[in-house]
Amino acid sequence: MPDGYTVAVVGAGLVGERLVSELRRRDFPLKELRVLARSERRQEIDGTIFEVGIAGPDAFEGVDFAFFAGTEGEKGAAAQLAEAAISRGAVVIDNGSDFRLDPEVPLVVPEVNARALEGHSGLIANPNCSTTQMVVSLTPLAREFGIRKVVVSTYQAVSGSGRGGVEALEDGKEGVYPKPISGNAIPVIGSIGEDGYSTEERKMILESRKILGLPDLEVHPTAVRIPVHTGHSESIYVETVREVTREEVLDAFRAAPGVTFSGDADGFPTPLEIAGDSGVHVGRVRASGNAVEYWCVADNLLKGAATNAVQIAEALVGARV
C-alpha cells in the first residue's frame, strides 16, 4: 500500500463531517477521499470544499473502505448499499444499527474486542454511541474482577439525534422529541417496547453483551436526553464477581486503553470540557465489596461514532502490514 487507500464517507451530516475530520486528524493513509450523499452538492467539511457525489453502487468502484455515517443509529443506508460496496472490493464500516446484532457481523470497539475483526466478510458494525463508551470503561473491570450486573443511567446530548436535535435545542424546532428539550430531561430515546425499555436502552443491553462476550450479563439502562449539545454522560453501577478495593479499581482505570483517568477518584469530567476529545473519561469513582460506581463521559460524535469507526479501519490496516 505505497500510496494509501481510497475511502468513501457515505453521509454528510454531523457524523459524516466528524469522519472526514478524524480521518485527517489521525493521518489515516488516504489516497482519495470521496464524500457521498443522497444528492450532489458542494459542501464545506473540515475547512475543505467537497464535491459531494450521489451514493449509488457505481460510486464505490475502487474504494477500499466505505464508512456509512448518517445520523447516529439511522437505519437503511448500509442495508441498501453495503452489498454493492463489498462486491466492488470495499470493507464497509457501518455506523447504523441494521447489522449490529447479526451474528455474522463483527460489532467492534477496538480497545475491547479487536479480535472480532478476524475473518470478517467485508461488513463491520460500529456500536451505538452510549454503548461504546460504557464498554470501554467496563472492560478493565471485567478483565480484572469479573462483572455480573450493570445498572446505568445516561444523560445524552442532542447531537445524538443529528442536526434536528441540535436545532431543537438551539432554535426550538418541534417534532424531534416528544416534549421540549430546552431546560428539560426526557427519559425516552426511541420507542418504548413491550418490555418497558426504549430503543436506546435495548441497544445498550444487547450490544454490550455481544461486544464483551458476556451473553448472560445483566444490563439495566435508563436512557435520558438532556439539553447538552455534545457529549454523553453515564452514571454506572457495576456488580463484580470478586470483591474489590477502591485503589484496585483506580489502578485498573489508569491502565485501561482508551480510558482517560486523571488519578483523582473524586474528580469528574463534564460534557462541556471533553467535547472534541476522542477518549472515554471517568471520574467520581467509588468501590467497596462487590460494587463499583463511577461517572463516564465521552464525545458521542467522536468515540461514540467517528473515532471508533476510524480506529476499526486502522486496526484492519495494521493487520495488513
UniProtKB/TrEMBL annotation:
Domain of life: Bacteria
TM region(s), chain numbering: none
Keywords, comma-separated and alphabetical: Oxidoreductase
Family classification: Belongs to the aspartate-semialdehyde dehydrogenase family.
Record-given protein name: Aspartate-semialdehyde dehydrogenase
Example of a GO MF term: NAD binding
Enzyme class: oxidoreductase
Gene3D superfamilies hit by this protein: Dihydrodipicolinate Reductase, domain 2 (3.30.360.10), NAD(P)-binding Rossmann-like Domain (3.40.50.720)
Residues of the Semialdehyde dehydrogenase NAD-binding domain: 6-120
Phylogenetic placement of the source organism: Bacteria, Bacillati, Actinomycetota, Rubrobacteria, Rubrobacterales
Active-site positions on this chain: 129 (acyl-thioester intermediate), 232 (proton acceptor)
GO annotation terms (biological process): amino acid biosynthetic process
EC numbers: 1.2.1.11
